[in-house]
Amino acid sequence: MPGTPLDRQRLQEALRLAEQSIGLSDPNPRVGCVIGREDGTVLGRGWTQEAGGPHAEVMALRDARQQDHDLGGATAWVSLEPCAHHGRTPPCCDALIEAGIGRMVVAATDPFPAVAGQGIARLRAAGIAVDLADDDLRAAAWELNIGFFSRVVRGRPWVRVKSASSLDGRTALPDGQSQWITGEAARTDGHAWRRRASAVLTGIGTVLADDPQLDVRRVPTRRQPLRAVLDSRLRLPASARLLATPGLLIYSCADAEDEAMRGLSERGAVPVTVPTVAGHLDLAAVLADLARRGVNELHVEAGATLSGALIDAGLCDELLLYLAPMLLSDGPGIATLPLPASLTAAHRLQWMDCARLGTDLRLRLRHEASAPTAWMPGDD
Fold it and tell me: pTM of the entire structure?
């Protein structure tokens, strides 16, 4: 366990650096690294770049060398266990060992099978002292990479369902009018959460009603998330704005019309056939397919039917709700769910945080079973 205030300070800085990888490093985890001396001198900093690019440790080593620093015996503080395998890049462990690093402080171990403690073991075998972080810093590292860990450990993305509503839970007027319930600040914040995700998912009902783009526009980003739509009968119109950019994933059932599938393929879409359950697309199969495509966090912006189906199936990990200070009285709700037999049978959530954004509130809630402590392996 880190024994000095400097260790905590440097790990906190490494976590802040790792945030620079949001919207950049997917499907790889977001990692930050600080290299320095025990007297407080910082030699180099770095964070993980785009997939196939250098990892945080290599970026920090480069930064130090560009300043002509001697790295012999230095300490490296990193937000996630260094990799020990050849993937798209060589092992970070080898680079750290070659540089002469004398000590490592790691916020969290990496559950990815090719790493999973092997990075720490390799460093220790080379004579490098390795310490692990306190539980609160480990939890912060888990939160930053909650989607990556979910994909690796559970085999599915972390699913975040976003909705904007009035105080009485209405997402639109009865005629479907919904633009705009929330203000500019809330809408910009929603795009920041889109940027954080590997993919944005919606249903065909939302596409037919709102013709969304599902891209990131209101905040800077170095890459756009994948876009996906559930459209069991391939009703997506050729004029849909989602088709303006190639690569749209369209999930349909096996008996969807071949002609419609060919037409969508010709427009650059990627039709994906998944099984059905009780006449509806198998949502677990959709999530499994997205995980195979490297999707870590899935941002869902959909109507009450799809949102409710994900919640009822236990596949919604987190709710991101924007509440506007208005009352609409009637109209569609946030999620369509079966009526619970009693209050004790209702879906219950845990508060994560609440923030005021302009005139609106953002609420973030989570199922207890979705907490990383319920499914993440512990550090040895």
Answer: 0.93
